[in-house]
Structure formats: C-alpha cells, structure tokens
Design brief:
Layout (H helix, E strand, L loop, with lengths): L2 H9 L10 H18 L10 H10 L5 H26 L1 H7 L2 H14 L1 H9 L7 H9 L4 H37 L4 H35 L6
Length: 226
C-alpha cells in the first residue's frame, strides 16, 4: 500500500478495505487531461470512454473532484478542437477517411440539419455513441469555431460533472466492485492500457503522416495524357 493510501486510511478508516489502486492515484489530474485530449482526437483509444472511467474512479477519493472535471473538460475541448479543425481543413474527404461509408451519409445529413445540436448530442452521450465522425462533420460542414466551443464545452462540462458526482456519491460501491473483481489485476490492467495507448498514438501519427504524403503526391502528380 502506498503512502497516500495509508494516509487516506488513517483519516477514513472505513475505506481501508476498499483501496484505490496506487497507480491510479499517481495517474492524477495530469493523466486525466492527457487521456481526454487523445480521447477526443482522431487517435483511437483502446478503451472507449477511458476519460469517463478515470474521472469516475479518481473522484471516489479525490479531495477536489472539480479539478478532475476541469482537466477532463479542458483536455477534451482541446482534442475536440483539433478534430474539428481537421474536418474544416480536410472537408468531407476527412469523413471518407475516418468514417465508414454506411454511416457517413447519415451523419452528414444529421449535422447539416441540426448543426450544434449534433455536436452537443455526441459530446454528452457515453459510448457507444461515436464522437469523431460528428466533430469531423461539424468542421467540414460549417459549424463555426464559436459554435463548436460553446456547444462542445457545455456538453462536456455537464457530462464530466455528472460522472464526478457519481464517483463522489457512489464511490464506495465502485471501489467495492473494483476490490472484489479487479484488485489483483490492477498492475496488469495499467500496463496493458499504457501499451495500447502508446500503440494507438503511434498508429495515429503514422496514419496521419501517410495520408499527408498521399495527399501531397496526388497534388503534385501530373495528369496522364491519353
């Protein structure tokens, strides 16, 4: 048991039997910020809703859960803005690259009809509602920067505030479930998650660079004369 866990157990003896994994405590606010940036970007995370899970677990014993909300919202808005910018720059071609054709037509139609409402809906609802296609479509189909920031920021604030409240209110039940089923696997889960996270980031960067090169080749390749 780490020093932080021992100190927490002295001040809250009733929580001694339900420890938070030590690696999760050290993950902290900065970890929530980093994961939330990636979670809202074009880089796929190995576990959908990773930010939600981190905020929920950390809020169970965090002295200032509002800091987790600020970190999650600010990171998510930053990652979401990068995705919106990619959609604005790449247009509907970005949707063709990242969204299956069987979904893209419906998403384009929905965003054209509802605008910022579509951004709010995707931002506030948990998985399996996908976020990436809606943010790309918002950028590609003319949702302004101001509209994006307001709608996405408010929706994310509502979402992560609710999750933090659930963690504070029902944290003991969450920790009981964790200690009963997953406590012995906490270190394995951590390293698997970090490994998958690194792989996802590397894959995302590799894919982006390849697409940039392909785009440059298409532009500079002269047309064949028949």
């Amino acid at each position: 048991m780490s020093y932080l866990q021992k100190a927490a157990a002295q001040h809250h003896p009733h929580k001694h039997a339900l420890p938070v994994p030590h690696w999760l405590i050290h993950f902290g606010v900065l970890g929530v910020f980093v994961v939330s940036v990636i979670d809202a970007s074009v880089i796929p995370l190995p576990l959908p809703g990773s930010t939600d899970l981190l905020v929920l677990l950390l809020a169970t014993q965090h002295n200032a859960p509002w800091m987790l909300v600020v970190a999650a919202v600010s990171g998510s808005v930053l990652g979401g803005y990068l995705t919106w910018s990619a959609g604005k720059k790449g247009g509907e071609a970005m949707l063709e690259r990242y969204v299956p054709k069987r979904f893209s037509a419906r998403i384009i139609k929905w965003v054209k009809r509802n605008g910022i409402v579509s951004v709010c809906t995707a931002a506030i609802l948990p998985p399996p509602i996908p976020l990436l296609p809606f943010l790309l479509a918002a950028g590609a189909l003319g949702v302004s920067r101001k509209q994006f920031f307001w709608s996405f920021g408010i929706a994310r604030t509502v979402r992560y505030s609710l999750i933090a409240w659930l963690g504070v209110t029902y944290g003991r039940h969450v920790l009981h479930w964790w200690s009963r089923y997953l406590a012995g696997w906490s270190d394995v889960i951590l390293w698997v998650f970090i490994g998958l996270l690194i792989a996802a980031v590397v894959f995302g960067i590799w894919k982006y660079r390849n697409e940039q090169r392909a785009g440059g080749t298409d532009i500079h390749t002269p047309a064949r004369v028949s």
